[in-house]
Write a structure and sequence with these properties.
165 residues, alpha+beta, seven-stranded antiparallel β-sheet, four-stranded antiparallel β-sheet, elongated
């Protein structure tokens, strides 16, 4: 075998390893049944926040989810909201509840989810915040549209979508 052929084989092997690495990295996917809205490379403990206006109270809510340690789901870390009288439910054993100014904060919740399902609603202004950038999902989708958040290796997400066609 010629030296030129050996170099080509080494280059092809290196490229294959590189692409396998890229395709196996975990990604945060924001999708509907019809398409993929957003896809970001992610890692354990990355935080994605969900901001919306509560449909009954008409007050802002911020929920913070962290990518779990195995990069295959989420852990709800905290919820921050306002309430005018009626209140939003919480269980005292689910975390630490406190009031800061006009906000109520339920912290250290540690509730686990494989996926997070959301839905756009009238006046709810569903917005995702990831690495300090806001993504106003409600501008992109019709009312009542289901939005799913999931963490998977890049190849697995698209393989699953192909299989479920």
């Amino acid at each position: 075998m010629k030296l030129k052929d050996k170099k080509l084989i080494v280059i092809v092997v290196i490229l294959c390893i590189f692409f396998c690495y890229l395709l196996s990295r975990p990604y945060l996917f924001v999708c509907t049944d019809a398409n993929t809205l957003l896809a970001f490379p992610t890692q354990k403990e990355d935080v994605i926040s969900i901001w919306f206006v509560h449909s009954v109270q008409k007050t802002p809510v911020l929920e913070n989810l962290a990518v779990n340690k195995s990069c295959d789901g989420f852990t709800l870390q905290s919820t921050k909201y306002q309430s005018f009288g009626v209140g939003l439910p919480f269980l005292p054993d689910e975390g630490e509840f406190k009031q800061v100014g006009k906000y109520f904060i339920l912290d250290n919740i540690n509730r686990r989810f494989k996926t997070v399902d959301l839905r756009t609603g009238l006046g709810t202004e569903l917005t995702l915040i990831y690495h300090e950038k806001k993504y106003p999902i409600y501008h992109e989708l019709p009312l009542g549209c289901k939005v799913e958040l999931k963490v998977l290796p890049y190849y697995r997400y698209y393989l699953d979508r192909l299989i479920n066609l």
